[in-house]
Design a protein that fits this description.
The complex is a heterodimer. Chain A has 9 helices and 11 strands. By secondary structure, chain A is of the alpha+beta class. In chain A, the strands form 4 sheets. Chain A has a 3-stranded antiparallel sheet, covered by helices on one side. In chain A, strands 6-7-8 form a 3-stranded mixed sheet, with helices on both faces. In chain A, helix 6 crosses helix 7. The longest helix of chain A is centred in the last third of the chain and has 23 residues. Chain A starts with a strand and ends with a helix. Chain B has 4 helices and 3 strands, in the order H-H-E-E-H-H-E. In chain B, strands 1-2-3 form a 3-stranded mixed sheet. The longest helix of chain B has 14 residues. The chains are: A alpha+beta, B alpha+beta. At the A-B interface, helix 4 and helix 5 of A face helix 2 and helix 4 of B.
Chain lengths: 287, 90
């Protein structure tokens, strides 16, 4: 999975910027600090913070028996000790796959195998699990719809289309994010997949949102150029912020950054030259 | 006082959606039970899962539980009802 590398005035800013680039929350990302800004006089910093980040491969939750079903050999590392919480009946009647090659007792936590050791999961398998889940979701709500998946390398895009699906989108796409989160749980996480990037769209919402936000961002950029005045946009979630950053990266003379912390984190659109040095100086001087 | 059966029929879409989601997440789908109770005029959907499956349903920092609630509440709008979801294990 790709890393993004960003520089900013502080480690914190660099991390925040990286999260926006990735379009995820900090719980979903991992960081490496490449360079720390040096401390200068009077608490000012010189030099830049350089950080690289990527989307954290989802937590290892391997279902060894499922892997068996898919015909992939379960290595000893994947075998998670499942009987450590006492034998209650629900566990006792599981299919006896326990007859796998003997595993040594492991320390708790040790079973979190390095992901490199796990065989990659076929994106087609992940996509199929996600599709089945979403079809069932639409059906369980008493509706009819069609679910289609597009696989492009590690990217899986799933579209759910149909009438009356607005309730699965919700205000500003909040319910859609929850649907996507659950889809990831039942596909990527259940299958132990860490490589695919899965996105769900319902009723073409994301595309419409992207178009509208891009138009809006370009208009704001125009205003900022005319007035010279930076503008803070309303708080947005990380994927919306990413759309704004993406829309304006190519716009000359404009720079964007995010400020504040979720759920109030917002994009600030400013003139590129201004945001480089002077406004942070102003902040430092006013203290 | 409303019976549980009445409560379930008050939020059939939410109940069905909740059942589907939870069964898709757990290891033991057959053990999943959804019951509706009414508490102070509010419908509460109680989900019971097999021992050991609760962690999966709740997720890291309760994130999965939060997502389930969001989708189930959205589904409840189709029942013209307001629901809450409680997660329990056997």
């Amino acid at each position: 999975m790709e890393w993004v590398e960003v520089t900013a005035e502080s480690i914190e800013d660099a991390k925040a910027l990286a999260l926006d680039r990735l379009g995820v929350d900090d719980a979903e990302a991992e960081f490496e600090v490449l360079e720390e800004p040096k401390a200068g006089l009077f608490g000012r910093t010189r030099g830049e913070a350089r950080v690289r980040a990527r989307i954290k491969p989802s937590s290892v939750r391997v279902k060894a028996d499922r892997r068996d079903r898919r015909g992939k050999p379960a290595t000893e590392r994947q075998a998670k000790p499942r009987n450590d919480r006492g034998d209650r009946r629900s566990r006792g009647d599981r299919p006896q796959r326990q007859s796998r090659p003997e595993r040594e007792p492991r320390e708790p936590g040790e079973d979190r195998a390095p992901r490199e050791d796990l065989p990659p999961v076929d994106p087609t398998t992940v996509s199929a699990a996600a599709t089945t889940f979403l079809e069932g979701l639409v059906k369980s709500a008493g509706l009819t719809g069609s679910v289609s998946a597009k696989i492009d390398g590690e990217h899986i895009d799933i579209d759910v289309l149909g009438d009356d699906l607005g309730f699965l989108v919700g205000t500003k796409g909040a319910t859609l994010l929850a649907v996507q989160d659950l889809t990831r749980v039942v596909s990527q996480r259940r299958l132990g997949d860490h490589d695919t990037r899965l996105r769900v769209d319902v009723a073409g919402y994301r595309e419409k949102r992207r178009e509208a936000l891009t138009r809006f961002a370009l208009k704001v950029a125009g205003d900022v150029k005319t007035s010279g005045q930076a503008r803070a946009l309303e708080p947005m979630n990380s994927s919306d912020r990413k759309i704004v950053h993406d829309a304006l990266t190519e716009v000359e003379g404009i720079s964007t950054r995010s400020e504040g912390s979720d759920p109030f984190r917002r994009v600030v659109v400013a003139l590129a030259s201004v945001s480089e040095d002077s406004d942070s100086e102003i902040v430092a001087d006013s203290e | 006082m409303m019976s549980d059966a009445q409560a379930t029929t008050m939020a059939p879409t939410a109940s069905a959606v909740l059942t589907h989601i939870v069964k898709s997440i757990v290891d033991t789908p057959d053990a999943v039970k959804v019951e509706a109770i009414v508490d102070e005029g509010k419908i509460i959907l109680e989900v019971r899962v097999a021992d050991g499956d609760l962690g999966r349903v709740i997720g890291r920092r309760g994130r999965t539980a939060q997502s389930i609630r969001a989708v189930v509440r959205a589904a409840a709008t189709r029942d013209n009802a307001e629901v809450d979801v409680d997660f329990l294990d056997d």
